[in-house]
Amino acid sequence: MNKWVIQFSLFLAFIPLAILIGYGLIVFAPIFCSFTAINCYRYNNQKEMYIWIAAGVLSFFLALFMLGVL
């Protein structure tokens, strides 16, 4: 077979995997932000805690939008 055809078919095979990983990151981003905000609260770092809360809320609504809920 042609080398270009093989590379193109492998590229097409990795597209669903990339979409799956992307959606997984979008779903777990608010969880990561909330745990980071809890850690900032534990060490009494108020400014960074509010930044992580805002990032978590933004990523939560982005996840809902990307998953088709909003």
Fill in the keyword field for this structure:
elongated; single chain; 70 residues; mainly alpha
- Profile the largest sheet: none
Mass-distribution shape: elongated
Helix percent reads over 70%
- The number of E-state strands comes to 0
State mean pLDDT (0 to 100 scale). Answer: 89
Distance between the termini: 45 Å
- Detail the poorly predicted runs: none
Elements, N to C (H/E): HH
Radius of gyration: 18 Å
Q: Which percent band covers the strand fraction? A: under 5%
How would you explain this protein's 3D organization?
The chain is mainly α. 87% of the residues lie in helices and 0% in strands. The chain has two helices and no strands. The mean pLDDT is 89.
Short description:
With 70 residues, the protein is mostly helical. The protein contains 2 helices and no strands. Helix 1 packs antiparallel against helix 2 (46-66).
List the helices and strands and how they pair.
Layout: H1 3-42, H2 46-66
